[in-house]
């Protein structure tokens, strides 16, 4: 055996040991290379045939064969033991890898982020409030009298201590104004709860996006302009128009429902807008003076607009989702479409 042969044998031995499937296989290799009749013995015996001037190097090679192979044997045994006798060998490294499946943002969260981003770009800041509210913030301060049907336990989830699950995000208006002086410009996304029987358009829990702008001389025209800006950005269509229809909410006067010209047909009439040319996006109005009084604002000094939009409704319109329940079932075949 010459010096190159030793090197070659060593590489082969190391590769074989590193790939050994179990401890028994490692031991067999140890015996084959380092055992009493193993290759190392042949190498040692071979030294007598090596010319004198090469004996030193031959000896060194033989030595490194011994120590490296022994190290490899011990390392492999340790690895296999750590893996509980299981093996990394037998894995075909040329096979394509298995991709871990990555989750996606839920379409509701993604839409809230997008909508909030649009309002932030025109000076709104995000405000939040608790899901568990008291009747004062959810109803009284919002000028909603004791007799109002929405306060009925058939419509609202009451807890045993008299608190309730907020039925809308409007109480965030109250909490924010209680703790901040005007001017106020907030957007409040959040979850709401109502005792509704689930069907294609109702869910006992859903999300709203609340807006409030209070300052001196805020007008309904500003509400219209800001709604127009928002919907145009959201839908990506600059020719969208806003229409305000008279309505009633206890906490605004006047109150309106906000429609926008259909983002699909542009107002011509199509399946999405049910051939009316208009799509409703939410409720709004000028903050009622009683609401200002409830939070200690002077209705003679400030005015404000407020609005509330249903996030699920918006998502359904935007993505053509036919049934609100699809948004809560977490079926990946559904969610994957929003990647
Ligand atoms: N809170 C109302 C609802 O749940 C939505 C709404 C209407 C919010 C008018 C407002 C508003 O801030 O001004 O149906």
- Bound small molecules, deduplicated: 3,4-dihydroxyphenylalanine
What is the domain tally?
Answer: 2
Strand order across the biggest sheet?
1-4-5-9-8-7-6
* Low-confidence sequence ranges: none
Shape: elongated
The helix/strand class is alpha+beta
What is the N-to-C order of secondary-structure elements (H for helix, E for strand)? Answer: HHHHHEEHEHEEHEEEHEHH
Report the portion of residues in β strands.
Answer: 15-25%
Quickly name the level 1 CATH class of the largest domain.
Alpha Beta
* CATH superfamily descriptor of the largest domain: Bira Bifunctional Protein, Domain 2
Radius of gyration over C-alpha positions, nearest whole angstrom: 37 Å
Shape-level CATH architecture of the largest domain:
2-Layer Sandwich
Largest sheet: 7 strands, mixed
Tally of strands: 9
Distance between the termini: 63 Å
The CATH topology name of the largest domain reads BirA Bifunctional Protein, domain 2
Could you estimate the helical fraction of the residues in percent? Answer: 25-40%
Number of helices: 11
Give the averaged pLDDT, no decimals: 94
């Amino acid at each position: 055996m010459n010096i190159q042969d030793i090197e070659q044998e060593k590489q082969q031995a190391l590769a074989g040991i590193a790939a050994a499937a179990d401890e028994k296989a490692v031991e067999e290799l140890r015996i084959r290379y380092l055992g009493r009749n193993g290759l190392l013995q042949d190498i040692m015996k071979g030294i007598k045939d090596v010319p004198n001037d090469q004996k030193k190097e031959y000896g060194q090679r033989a030595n490194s064969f011994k120590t490296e192979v022994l190290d490899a044997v011990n390392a492999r045994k340790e690895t296999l033991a750590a893996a509980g006798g299981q093996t990394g060998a037998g894995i075909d490294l040329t096979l394509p890898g298995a991709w871990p499946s990555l989750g996606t943002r839920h379409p509701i969260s993604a839409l809230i982020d997008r909508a909030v981003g649009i309002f932030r770009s025109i000076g709104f800041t995000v405000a939040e409030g608790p899901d568990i509210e008291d009747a004062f913030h959810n109803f009284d301060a919002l000028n909603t009298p004791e007799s109002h049907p929405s306060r009925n336990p058939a419509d609202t989830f009451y807890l045993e201590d008299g608190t309730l699950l907020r039925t809308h995000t409007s109480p965030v208006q109250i909490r924010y104004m209680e703790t901040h002086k005007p001017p106020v410009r907030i957007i409040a996304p959040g979850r709401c709860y109502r005792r509704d029987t689930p069907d294609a358009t109702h869910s006992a829990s859903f999300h709203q996006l609340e807006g409030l702008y209070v300052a001196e001389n805020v007008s309904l025209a500003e509400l219209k302009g800001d709604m127009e800006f928002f919907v145009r950005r959201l839908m990506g269509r600059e020719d969208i128009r806003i229409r305000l229809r008279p309505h009633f909410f206890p906490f605004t006067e006047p109150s309106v429902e906000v429609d926008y010209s259909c983002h699909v047909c542009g107002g011509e009439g199509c399946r999405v807008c049910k051939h009316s040319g208009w799509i409703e996006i939410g409720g709004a109005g000028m903050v009622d003076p009683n609401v200002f009084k409830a939070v200690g604002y002077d209705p003679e000094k400030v005015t404000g607009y407020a609005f509330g939009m249903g996030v699920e409704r918006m998502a359904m319109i935007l993505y053509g989702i036919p049934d609100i329940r699809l948004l809560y079932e977490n079926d990946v075949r559904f969610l994957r479409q929003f990647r």
